[in-house]
C-alpha cells in the first residue's frame, strides 16, 4: 500500500481514498462453558457469542465479537443491510443507523439475566453500536496500517494486567453434553486454593477475584481467607453479584476488613452500596449499579461505588468507554474492566482499550482461562497471557485474523446445541427444581 496516497485529510476530500463496506458476515457460535456457579444459578453448557466480519472494497476485514443471544442476533441482522456501502470511518453515521434499528424494536420473548447488564433491553443501542464500532475501528486501523490502540490516542502501557477469576463449580454439567473439563470440582476452601494455584502457575496472575453469592456467606469468607493465607501477597476481590442483603454485606465486610483490594457488588442497589461504604469504609466496585452515565451521575451524588468496572460491550464501545474513563478521572473514581464468557476478539479489544486509558486502577477481569484451547476462532489459537498480562502488538488493527475452519466448527456447534438465550436459572433448576434465583438470597 502507498501510505502517502492513502492519507485521509480531516475536513476535506483532498487526498482521501474512498473506502466502502461491501460485505458483513455475522456468525453465531457456541463454545463449551464449564459448570460455573453464580448468584443467578449456573452457566449453561455452552456460551453464545456472535462473530462479526466486515470487509471493505480494498480487501481489509475488520473483526468484532459480541453477545450471541437471539435478541442481539436479530438486532445485528436488522442493522447489517443499513451498513453496506458505508465508510468505516463514519462512526457518527453508524450511530444514527443503529439508533434507527433499535427504535424499531425486537419482537418475541426476551429473557433478562439480571446479573449481566448486556442482556438488558435498555442497553440495546449501546450493545449494537459497540458490536459494530469495534470492527469499524479495526478497519480504520488496518486501512492506516497502525495498531488499533493508536486510534484511541496511543498506548500508555504495552501490556494489560488481568486477574485470576475463581469460581465455585461442579465437576461437570448434569446432562453431560461433553467430557468433564480439566478443572474438576470446586466447592470448598481446599479445592478453591488448588484452583487458584493452577491458574496462577499457568498464567502468572498477580491478583485474584472470587465469584461469590453461591455458598453461605460465612463459608465464602472462609474460602477467601484460605486464599489469603495461601497467597498473602496477591490482592483479593470478592463478587457476590448483589446476592447479599445489606446487613449480610456489612457483617461479611467487617469480617474481611484488611483482606480485600475492593469489595464488588455485594448488595444489589446503589443506595445499599452507599450505606455499606459508610458502614465499613471499604472501597466498593460495581458493574451492576453503574452501567451508564445517568447512573454514574447518581453514583457521584451517593458515593455508592468508588470503582467502576467498565465493559465496552454494553457501555457503547471503545471510545464511549474512554469517555467513562475521563469521567472517572474527573471525579476521582477508580476504573477497571468487567468480563463475561468471551473469546480472543473481545480480549484483544479490551486490551487495546485498556492500553489506551491512563486511569486503569486495577487488573481487569477475564473469563478467558476458562475457555478451552481448541475453541478459539482466531488464527494461531488462544492469545497468550504471560505474567498475568496480555500484550498489544505492532500489527494493524486488533492484530487478529479469523480461523475460518474454527469459526465453522463453532457455528455448527451453535446449530446443534439448541441454546439461543442464556438463562442460568433454568440450567440450575436441572440440579435444584425449586431454584428461583431471587436476589438477595442471603
What this model shows, in words?
α11 (318-330) runs parallel beside α12. This protein has 14 helices and 14 strands. The strands form four sheets. The protein has a seven-stranded parallel sheet with strand order 7-8-9-10-11-12-13, with helices on one face. It has a three-stranded antiparallel sheet with strand order 1-4-5. The chain folds into two domains: 21-146 and 424-431, 2-Layer Sandwich (Enolase-like, domain 1), CATH 3.30.390.10; 148-400, Alpha-Beta Barrel (TIM Barrel). The radius of gyration is 21 Å and the shape is globular. The termini are far apart. It has helices at 70-83, 91-104, 124-144, 148-151, 189-203, 217-230, 246-255, 270-280, 293-302, 312-315, 318-330, 344-356, 404-417, 424-428, and strands spanning 21-32, 37-38, 41-42, 46-56, 61-67, 159-161, 164-167, 208-211, 236-239, 262-264, 284-286, 307-310, 334-337, 389-391. The model is unreliable at 1-15 (pLDDT under 50). The chain is an alpha/beta fold.
